[in-house]
Amino acid sequence: MDRKLYELKINPSIGMDVNVISIVDSPAVESSFLAFSKQEKKETFAITSEERFELIGVAMIPHKIIPRYDEATKEEYDVFFSKDTIRTIAQNYFYSGYQHSINLQHSDTFVNAHVWQSYIVDSVMGLNAPHGINAPDGTWIVGVQLDKNETSSQKLWKFIKDGTFTGFSVEGYFINQLTQNFNSQITLEQEIDNALKSLK
User: Fold this and answer.
1) 3, 78 in Cβ contact below 8 A?
2) Contact 55, 143 (CB under 8 A)
3) 197 contacts: CB under 8 Å, gap ≥ 6
4) Average pLDDT, stretch 13-40?
């Protein structure tokens, strides 16, 4: 049996969007963030008194196949995001004021941090990925700053330094649209209708 592939989309008007960025130990996009000091150079994880507790890295990569498992149906399947969807997610993240929604390991533990930098990689426009990060056009890059005066942020920074936490992962509610690689095609409109029915 073929493994199903779904394109994930959002619809903020019905509450389906990315509303959290998580600091995790194993990012689904398989790209680690970089830690930067005040001198804006790539750190070898040596903390100085002038450090700004800033991270920069990949939030989302277009057409990156991400394996998923449905606990209810015991089904393994794959998902991906298109360039257009990632751009819309990045724009809506700021439009909706989610910049301070940063948690740890997709848990209820929120971090005293905020997204202060954000852009979509576009080589034609000269918007390239940071040195040390290999990312195609359409990738969403974010910069996050932790509150260096806050005790829990200081502890978290130590774990980031030692490699316990290595990257970002987005969190939200998505519309799963089955791709045209399969006979059972579900339209976006049908998926929205199904989602609305499930909320009743």
Assistant:
1) yes
2) yes
3) none
4) 72
Per-residue pLDDT at 124 exceeds 60: yes
Tokens at 73, concatenated: 């149906």
* CA separation for the pair 186, 124 (Å, rounded): 34
Q: Average pLDDT of the chain?
A: 80
pLDDT at 34: 57
Residue 8 and residue 85 in contact, taking contact as beta carbons nearer than 8 Å: yes
Query: Which two structure tokens, joined as six digits, stand for 157?
Result: 């920074």
Average pLDDT over residues 175-196: 51
Of 71, 35, 46, nearest in space to 168 by CA: 35
Query: Can you spell out the DSSP letters for 104-123?
Result: ETTSS-B-SEEEEEEEE-BT
**Whether the Cβ atoms of residue 141 and residue 121 lie closer than 8 Å to each other:** yes
